[in-house]
């Protein structure tokens, strides 16, 4: 795996490399075949200018490359959310808060990354701008190199590939139902979904105002902690306790259903390795998770809330939308007001019951996804592949989206061995357990890497 942000920053401080050389190395990767379709816009001059500016106290990113999902406002740039519908809109008049915080920390913005149109899918396909192929950061090579290219995961597809290939140290994205953790798992990198309220969502085109979360992907946990501290404007306290002091659980319900053989082997090996390292892991039923299926029977929050935003655009430009995205948004028109209100109260009640069931546990461990990424050709645009696309999409979203519905926090860590397709291990809990999840992840990471 390429050097992470913190190691590169230390090399800059020690004079072992030059900021401009580091910026150029990232640009070379971003403009290479490894990042084909990963970027919608690359901004070399902006990155180089930031990289060569005099160091300012507190600018912990030191001009290092950060990619930005095409969902966020950057002053002077058009925010199109991976669509063609919005590509001729007026440029943003100011930075989104997340962009402003990264800029204040000294981020060098390398460009805008490709994404699923309007962030409405976990697969990563974009019929307008092409789809980047997954890249395994652990081995620094394309996923499916000897076979066919694999899906990158979505919706933050380009962000994940930019980080996995080494074009960016941080990939800013969003997570409404897994859009950070899905591509992180499928590209062998780290993806952290914080508790939604910790980072402002203003200046980002919404998918679901209830579930949207602004967060990022990196190559290591320590980089993830730094990225979260910048985005949330808060410090993550250091923990000084061993892995054996954490009370961990795995759940029998939902999260381990329909695992393919590659994921199952990687997950079981990870548990064996963690137990050997002293982790105390208990299996619990947590049957409350099964209630999410009937609770979401009317479609959930995303279709209804996205339809409210897209209604006028769909009325005049529906033919310019990705048909698969339009189909999911238009489902929101069918939800009645009383169903939406009932869903809000049902969710609140469900969260309370799950929180009660998890009292006493520091984190729950699950596979991030039950399957490895399929070949791009299996789910490429086309009505003849729609059934397979929606089947895969549902499987990819199932585990991560449960945490969004829970208003929780979660991190995905790579847990596959070299030669295997990328697999993620997810550590998660309910709202405002972010510090514990990040502290635990720092202990899990070296065990998983050795394993």
Q: How is this structure best described in words?
A:
It is a single chain. With 451 residues, the protein is α/β, with parallel strands linked by helices. The protein has two domains: 5-232, Amidase signature (AS) enzymes; 243-296 and 330-440, Amidase signature (AS) enzymes (Alpha-Beta Complex), CATH 3.90.1300. It is built from 14 helices and 13 strands. It has helices at residues 5-13, 19-30, 44-51, 97-104, 157-165, 181-187, 221-232, 261-276, 292-295, 301-317, 323-330, 337-357, 386-405, 434-450, and strands at 39-42, 65-69, 108-113, 135-136, 141-142, 170-174, 190-193, 214-218, 247-251, 280-284, 363-367, 409-414, 424-429. The strands form two sheets. The chain has an eleven-stranded mixed sheet with strand order 1-3-2-6-8-7-12-13-11-9-10, with helices on both faces. Strands 4-5 form a two-stranded antiparallel sheet. Strand 4 (135-136) and strand 5 (141-142) form a beta hairpin. Helix 7 runs antiparallel to helix 14. It is globular and about 55 Å long. The mean pLDDT is 97. One of its GO terms (molecular function) is catalytic activity. It comes from Limnohabitans parvus II-B4.
């Amino acid at each position: 795996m390429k050097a992470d942000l913190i190691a590169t920053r230390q090399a800059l401080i020690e004079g072992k490399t030059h900021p401009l050389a580091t910026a150029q190395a990232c640009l070379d990767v971003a403009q290479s075949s490894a990042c084909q379709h990963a970027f919608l816009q690359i901004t070399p001059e902006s990155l180089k200018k930031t990289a060569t500016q005099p160091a300012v106290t507190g600018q912990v990113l030191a001009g290092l490359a950060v990619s930005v999902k095409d969902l966020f406002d950057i002053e002077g740039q058009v925010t199109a959310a991976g669509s063609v519908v919005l590509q001729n809109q007026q440029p943003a008049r100011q930075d989104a808060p997340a962009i402003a915080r990264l800029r204040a920390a000294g981020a060098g913005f390398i460009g805008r990354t490709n994404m699923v149109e309007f962030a409405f899918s976990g697969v990563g396909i974009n019929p307008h701008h092409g789809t980047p192929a997954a890249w395994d950061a652990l081995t620094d090579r394309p996923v499916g190199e000897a076979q066919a290219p694999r899906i990158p995961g979505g919706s933050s597809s380009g962000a994940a590939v930019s980080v996995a290939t080494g074009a960016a140290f941080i990939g800013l994205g969003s997570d409404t139902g897994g859009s950070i953790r899905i591509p992180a798992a499928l590209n062998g990198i780290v993806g952290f979904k914080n508790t939604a309220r910790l980072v402002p969502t203003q200046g980002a085109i919404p998918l679901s105002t209830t579930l949207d979360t602004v967060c990022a992907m990196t190559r290591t946990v320590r980089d993830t902690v730094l990225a979260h501290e910048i985005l949330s404007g808060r410090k993550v306290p250091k923990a000084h306790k061993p892995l054996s002091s954490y009370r961990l659980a795995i759940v029998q319900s939902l999260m381990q259903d329909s695992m393919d053989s590659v994921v199952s082997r990687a997950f079981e090996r990870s548990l064996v390795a963690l137990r050997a390292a002293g982790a105390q892991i208990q299996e619990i039923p947590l049957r409350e998770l099964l209630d999410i299926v009937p609770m979401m029977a009317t479609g959930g929050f995303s279709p209804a809330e996205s339809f409210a935003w897209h209604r006028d655009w769909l009325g005049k430009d529906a033919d310019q939308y990705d048909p698969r995205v339009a189909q999911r948004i238009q489902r929101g028109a069918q939800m009645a007001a009383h169903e939406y209100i009932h869903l809000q109260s049902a969710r609140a009640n469900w969260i309370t019951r799950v929180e009660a069931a998890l009292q006493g546990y520091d984190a729950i461990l699950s596979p991030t996804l039950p399957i490895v990424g399929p070949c791009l050709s299996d789910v490429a645009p086309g009505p003849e592949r729609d059934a397979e696309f929606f089947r895969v999409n549902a499987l990819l979203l199932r585990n991560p989206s449960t945490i969004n519905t829970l208003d929780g926090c979660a991190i995905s860590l790579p847990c596959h061995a070299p030669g295997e397709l990328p697999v993620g291990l997810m550590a998660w809990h309910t709202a405002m357990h972010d510090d514990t999840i990040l502290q635990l992840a720092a202990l899990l990471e070296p065990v998983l890497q050795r394993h």
